[in-house]
Design brief:
The N and C termini lie far apart (about 50 Å). The chain is built from 19 helices and no strands. It has helices at about 10-20, 25-40, 50-55, 55-85, 90-100, 100-140, 145-165, 170-195, 200-205, 210-215, 215-230, 235-250, 255-280, 285-295, 300-305, 310-350, 355-375, 380-405, 420-440. By secondary structure, the protein is mainly alpha-helical. It has a single domain (about 5-440), classed as Amino acid/polyamine transporter I. The model is unreliable at about 1-20 (pLDDT under 50). It is globular, with a radius of gyration of 22 Å. It holds the Pfam family Trp_Tyr_perm. This is HAAAP family serine/threonine permease. Its main location: membrane. GO terms for molecular function: amino acid transmembrane transporter activity; symporter activity.
Length: about 450
Amino acid sequence: MSQSNVYTPEASVQAGQAAAGKSAWTRQDTTWMLGLYGTAVGAGTLFLPINAGIGGFWPLLVMLVLAWPLTYFAHRGLNRFVLSGSTRDGDITEVVEEHFGLTAGKLITLLYFFAIYPILLVYSVAITNTVMSFLTNQFGIQLGNDIVTRGIFALGLILALMSVVRLGGEFIVKAMSVLVFPFVAALMLLALYLVPHWNSSMIDQAGTFSAAVSSGAFWKTLWLAIPVMVFSFNHSPIISSFAVDQKKLHPGCEDAASNRTLSRAHIMMVASVFFFVFSCVLSLSPADLAEAKAQNLSILSYLANHFQNPIIAWVAPLIAIVAISKSFFGHYLGAKEGFNGLVIKELRQRGKTIDTAKLDRFTAVFMIVTTWIVATLNPNILGMIENLGGPVIAVLLFLMPMYAIYKVPAMKKYAGVASNIFVVAIGLIAISAIFYSLVF
């Protein structure tokens, strides 16, 4: 390794705090802030009001209080882990191997890939179903649902998404930052539209806070809601690309600069998403939320039917399409990174190498073929696949960076703070709640 390519995280972080004020906010920082937001706030947001609100008003209020620290501290830890690598262009798969060795590196890279790739498959099905439903219900175009028609339609949609992906990671981040604006605007306008429909039924049923916390139902609701919130704000697939770029954008103070970007992105996430969530919950009754849960509808679809509003009926699928597309792009970056890492590590073990451009083309073909097949077959096991990926995401996002703080010399400077205990606790709670939900 040449001396010019050596990156010393210890010296960097020592200088980082002093240089924090010297690193001006740039246009790239704004793009990354919106890109992080775009990856996190997507299709899952459309189910969050139902999944979070059905447990009652007081657990939802506690979730609001926990949302920012839960999201920020966890992603900051993962970002710091990637920054701790000894090279400026080392992504998470390279840093894992550097810190934990070849065997552990391959295992964690495999887990990283399978935590993200199944969600990409879920989005390929979701975008196909949403667009086909939109054309059928709003335009009256009868496409048919036979496997040939669906296959042709799914292929066209996935190729359209992949044509954006092929323009490169930087373009993907810019595309997500652009798509954020119509998505956020639509959510906020809908939230404001619902304000006149707010009612006190949810609060009336909640009773007093002291009475609520004394019941086992409150704590069980909060326990099971933690993973819902964790994965509604999860943008771990893009963190590695973000950290690598921060080393180039803010050399010498990348930790402080990236923390600033993360903090602002998470404030934006929590403020906008929870305003939308509370507006939806306060405009419906507990019985309405239970009905929406039973019908397995997104909150937009339920609101369109509940208020008999043709505008929502048109806008809802458009919001969903934008949300799914944003999330598809962000998760593709992570899935590609994991897949490439697996191939590179396997070839390296055999004493071989592969051209990066050639590997990217191979990865793109693999993603196109597999997402197309799954979108065409439309299997009913996708929810289970997504849930099974949940514990892996919790391990990689919450537990692995905290473990690295106490095992990796380059990260020991982050030890001894209360936020580490908080992150580990939330990670263990999320994993236990996910397994409970799967079993019961």
